[in-house]
Amino acid sequence: MAHAFLSNRVVTPHGTQPAALLIEGGIIRAVCRPSELPAGTIIHDCGNDAILPGLIDTHVHINEPGRTEWEGFRTATRAAAAGGYTTLIDMPLNCLPETTTVEALAAKRTAAQGQCFVDWAPWGGAVADNQPHILPLARAGVLGYKCFLIYPGCDGFTMIDQQQLEAALPHIATSGLPLLVHAELAAPIDRATATLQNADWRSYSTYLQSRPDEAELEAIRLMIRLCRQYKFRLHIVHLSTALALDELKAARAEGLPITIETCPHYLHFAAEDIPDGATLLKCAPPIRNRANRESLWQALSDGTIDMIVTDHSPCPPEMKRAETGRFDQAWGGIASLSIAFPLIHTECIRRGFTLDHLARWMSSAPASLAGINHIAGALELNRQANFIIFDTEVEFTVTPDKLHYRHPISAYMGEKLRGTIKATYLRGKPIYQNELITDTPQGHELTLS
Q1: pTM for this prediction
Q2: Both 279 and 328 in a single domain?
Q3: Residue 435 Ramachandran class (φ > 0 left, ψ -120 to 50 alpha, else beta)
Q4: What is the Cα–Cα distance from 202 to 353, expressed in whole angstroms?
Q5: Is 32 exposed, middle or buried, given 0-12, 13-18 or 19+ CB atoms closer than 10 A?
Q6: Which residue in 162, 159, 170 sits closest to 126, CA to CA?
Q7: What is the three-class DSSP state of 233?
Q8: Same domain, 220 and 282
Q9: Is the domain of 27 the same as that of 88?
Q10: Same-domain check for residues 203 and 110
């Protein structure tokens, strides 16, 4: 039986317009005028609530198998459904084993079985010594590779130095898949930290000084040079410093295949406003100053930054070291899967951006990065019927019951946001509706074939 969802604001790749979304068999069969719907279609009139493509997050740490006390497939995808996400691409670290071999990928798939409320897919890892595993991972179905140019915080996922990276890059280029790079180098951080031996590590300014812009700048310059030499797809994850934007823009103008993401925390918070001891706001690279934040927004506006993804990186509350408030001892990571979209919508209203911008930054651009834009990421003919119903007017306050991931702590607690997800649909079926998540997980792994 065909169903049609009507709205005054259907967000399509061709703009936001009054339309009907015709769905049959979990697939979008038409985006049309209501008068064009076939007889017998079951109508769902959403009025002025917006219909947008399901969100896609290409930077999520699900942490399963091995660290389900941090997060897990069931809890992460539950939070995703409540937040309007219909697809998550899982990072290859913080789980045990790390996704750096085909065997480890098989363990992750086993862990995911029957637990996912939304669709998911894996990134593989490029680490110090797994060069022989790069192409087998591609054949086994990873969508790309993640690497760290600096110690990542967990011992099992090793950083990769330039020599090791250059041994891996021909394989990565052959795969045709993107390399996602945590772009910070250790030397500038080590130099900065050496000057802070007697500093107050409860002070956010101390932490900010310990992760200078130069660490990102030097890493990005290195990766641009390697991208030029080895002709691979380069993706810069969680860009924090606006000082790198001109060089990245120039590299792309040169024709290099580079994409860039940033995250909600860099677009919302500012270093000047972070209190001492507020370790829930620790992340790496760090949240920088207010002027830097506005430059990131400008880069989204002009297309230099392609997308907004969460870098959802939860941990048990005790790892945030709230009792000491020391930034040097706290785990770095900010969880936001369930509230990222209303948060960015609130910021967009302040800055004059539209639902079309949101759909591009948080759905279609991440889908293109992951290579799944033939399946998801847009309300178009023959795509899967993954979409959200979004009330743009309702305001709410972030409280623990809104979070849905494993540990209900948040850097955004108490914030008033505008816009709420009324329903999330996966292949035409509701997975979140009326503040309730469906009882039966319906998600599965996506593949490029």
Answers
A1: 0.98
A2: yes
A3: left
A4: 36
A5: middle
A6: 159
A7: coil
A8: yes
A9: no
A10: yes
